[in-house]
Structure to design on (271 residues):
């Protein structure tokens, strides 16, 4: 078992790494077109690889004894109970299309639980970050639990739900209910969806088919802002002990702002 980590030092390392990654991605944005497809048909570009390599180098220089799970390179097991979970470019299709909404996400997991998360949006330069038990922040300003969305006074604003974009096995019933009953958005980045729920910009994000690197960083931000993330059946997503064996599974979940889980689950997930 690895010795206890100074989470403030780890946060600073993750902030440095996401900042460096953001510089790389901004430099390559719109002119990066070299790409290939993985076995699951998802796209990987040189930008993904350059960003990931830069992040891993910065993390390894400070925490050489820790394991790393990254989207492109997979699991590098150091036998540690700490795992850095990296998505070097969340929103690759947006990136390639020239749509300036994409992110880099870093999380630190201890014993299968995310204890630190940083999500950086290179084009806006927004950086969401959180340490478990210490609250969440955006660009240095603390987020108060309950959502940070715009004040609407007595106006009854419609529920706004972020949804996934690929349903190869057919449209699920819950999505049909969402389309009928609520306004919906998809911005092409799971990490940003979670952070936007934390901000109160979305009321919920219903994900279907993502991976741990997509959501680990945003999960810490969301929970530290008072939100909730559970499986579609209402069970906790974490701990994820299987990742210590290199077993990575697709995830389905519902993330909501503070106090909204029961309403969203009842109205949109349950028959």
């Amino acid at each position: 078992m690895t010795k206890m980590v100074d989470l403030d030092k780890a946060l600073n390392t993750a902030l440095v790494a996401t900042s460096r990654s953001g510089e790389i991605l901004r430099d390559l944005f719109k002119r990066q077109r070299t790409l290939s497809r993985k076995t699951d048909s998802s796209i990987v570009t040189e930008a993904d690889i350059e960003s990931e390599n830069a992040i891993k180098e910065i993390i390894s220089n400070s925490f050489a004894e820790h394991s790393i799970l990254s989207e492109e390179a997979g699991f590098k097991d150091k036998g540690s109970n700490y795992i850095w979970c990296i998505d070097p470019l969340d929103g690759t299709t947006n990136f390639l299309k020239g749509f300036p909404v994409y992110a880099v996400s870093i999380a630190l997991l201890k014993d299968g639980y995310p204890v630190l998360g940083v999500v950086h949006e290179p084009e806006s330069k927004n950086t969401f970050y959180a340490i478990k038990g210490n609250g969440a922040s955006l660009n240095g300003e603390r987020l108060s639990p309950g959502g940070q969305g715009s004040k609407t006074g007595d106006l009854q604003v419609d529920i706004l739900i972020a949804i996934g974009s690929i349903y190869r096995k057919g449209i699920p019933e819950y999505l049909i209910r969402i389309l009928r009953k609520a306004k919906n958005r998809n911005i092409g980045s799971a990490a940003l969806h979670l952070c936007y729920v934390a901000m109160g910009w979305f009321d919920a994000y219903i994900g279907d088919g993502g991976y741990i690197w997509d959501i680990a960083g945003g999960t810490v931000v969301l929970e530290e802002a008072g939100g909730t993330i559970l499986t579609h059946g209402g069970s906790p997503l974490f701990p994820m002990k299987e990742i210590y064996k290199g077993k990575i599974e697709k995830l389905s979940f519902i993330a909501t702002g503070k106090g909204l889980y029961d309403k969203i689950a009842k109205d949109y997930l349950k028959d």
The mean pLDDT is 89. Helices lie at 7-28, 46-62, 92-97, 173-181, 190-199, 212-224, 261-269. The longest strand covers residues 82-90.
